[in-house]
Every structure is written in structure tokens, then in C-alpha cells.
Amino acid sequence: MIVTIDGVAASGKSSVSGGVARALGIPYVSSGLLYRAATLLGLDAGLDLGDPGALLAHLSSHPVRLEPLAEGNRVWRADRELTDDLHSTRVDKGVSVVAAHPQVRAWVDDQLRALPEPFVAEGRDMGTAVFPHAQHKFYLTASARIRAERRAKERPDDIPDIEAALIRRDELDANQIAPAADAQVLDTGPMTLDEVITTILRAVRA
Ligand SMILES: Nc1ncnc2c1ncn2[C@@H]1O[C@H](COP(=O)(O)OP(=O)(O)OP(=O)(O)O)[C@@H](O)[C@H]1O
Ligand SMILES: Nc1ccn([C@@H]2O[C@H](COP(=O)(O)O)[C@@H](O)[C@H]2O)c(=O)n1
């Protein structure tokens, strides 16, 4: 079984996926972490993020491994853990450029499709491009202001700056953030995290 949870930036995808996965006793897979890892490694190596050839060459000589645990995904490059460095403002700013390269998307998709079922997969195009055959699909949304207010509790930046950055990232990600035709769309603005998780679990178990 595959459950997909897609949505706009900071809509709660990883928190919700983690809660759903823990309740079902299966792992969740955060696809965005692979795009973030590609970006971090590109930035650290001083590469031009607009050059997919250079990025792919660097990624193949520095293999990245996603560990999809129910209690939280971890990302490794050899024995260096990258996880804690993936949610910085500099990675947020560069990641959409990296994710726009078809070659990088194929690098991510190949790793995701090699994972053993069952799992909950979260991202932008899990229910559309990567796992169109998934049994249960959800799409999370909320206003940019609400998302920025939530994110401000985890980042040092001001709410208006966070909001502008989220809107910008959604624009840059527009090619891959349409909900699947068979996805249930949830506006999480008026919902608590627990309410979102319970709504999804009810649909999956029905
Ligand atoms: N329904 C909700 N009610 C209140 N807070 C929420 C809700 N959903 C998510 N949050 C909070 O919003 C923040 C962003 O959530 P999360 O990191 O899960 O989003 P995301 O979609 O995975 O983000 P990104 O796209 O940047 O990876 C977190 O602090 C999370 O606890
Ligand atoms: N399926 C996906 C997942 C992510 N991306 C790109 O990665 C960025 C970071 O993702 P988060 O889920 O951690 O916010 C996101 O802004 C996209 O550029 C993607 O393209 N497809």
C-alpha cells in the first residue's frame, strides 16, 4: 500500500505524514529531503545550481541515502548525516532551481520507486508523477499567512519574510504542485494537526 500526501510548501506534509505513518505502523518518505540534499551538496561544493550536469556528476560521486523511518526521515552522504542542515534558509532559497532539472527529478524518483511498500510518501508530485497508482491520495493546502505563522515558530525569520519566501517557492514549484485528480484536498487552515491526521486515517481505514 502507498499513501501519498502532497501539498504546497509548509502545509504540514511531513508532520502529517509522520503522524499517519506512526498510526499505521509503516514508514513515511519525505521526497523533499532528497531535493534538499542535492541542493546542500551543490551549495557546499560551490556548484552552479543551474547546471544539472555538474550537480548530477557531484551526486554520483557522493551518493546520498534516505532513511525513511516513521519517527522521522534521515539523510546521509556516506557516514555524514545531512538531516539537520537541510532546512536552512539558504537551502530553501536554492532548492526549487535544483528541483526544476528533469535529471535531478529522475535521480530522486529512481530512489523513491526502489523503496519497499508499504509507506506514506510526501512531496509535490507523489500522487501525480511518481506513484500515480497509489491507493490513497491527499493534498494539503492553507493560506500563505497561516503557513508562515506556523513556520515562524521554527525559524528565526519574520512572518512577512517567511510568507514571501513561501509564495515565491510555490511559484517556482508550480510545475509539480497540482493535486492528483483522485486526491482528497484538505484546507488545513482551520484544522489542528491531529484533526488532519485523523481525517486522513479515517479515509485510509474506510
Ligand atoms: N494543522 C496544523 N495546525 C497547526 N500547525 C501545523 C499544522 N500542520 C502543520 N503544522 C506546523 O506547521 C509547520 C510546518 O509543517 P511541516 O514542516 O510538516 O510542513 P511541510 O509541508 O512538510 O513543509 P516543507 O514543505 O517546507 O517541507 C510545523 O511547525 C508543523 O508543526
Ligand atoms: N516531490 C517533490 C518534493 C519536493 N520538491 C522540491 O523540493 C523542495 C523542498 O521540498 P519540501 O517538501 O521539503 O518543502 C520544494 O520546494 C520543491 O522545489 C519537488 O519538486 N518535488
From TrEMBL:
**Localization per Swiss-Prot or TrEMBL:** Cytoplasm
Tell me which InterPro entries the record gives: Cytidylate_kin, Cytidylate_kinase_dom, P-loop_NTPase
Which superkingdom, per the lineage?
Bacteria
The answer on whether this UniProt entry bears the keyword Nucleotide-binding reads: yes
What GO biological process terms are annotated to this protein in UniProt?
Answer: pyrimidine nucleotide metabolic process
Q: Look up the EC number in the record and give it.
A: 2.7.4.25
The entry's keywords: ATP-binding, Cytoplasm, Kinase, Nucleotide-binding, Transferase
The main place the protein resides is cytoplasm
Q: Where is the Cytidylate kinase domain?
A: 3-205
Kindly list the positions annotated as binding ATP.
7-15
Pfam families per UniProt: Cytidylate_kin
A Gene Ontology molecular function term of the record: dCMP kinase activity
According to UniProt, the reaction catalysed is:
dCMP + ATP = dCDP + ADP; CMP + ATP = CDP + ADP
What is this enzyme's class at the first EC digit?
Answer: transferase
Q: Transmembrane residues, as ranges?
A: none
The record's Gene Ontology cellular component field reads: cytoplasm
| Family that this chain belongs to | Belongs to the cytidylate kinase family. Type 1 subfamily.
- The name under which this protein is listed is Cytidylate kinase
Species of provenance:
Deinococcus ficus
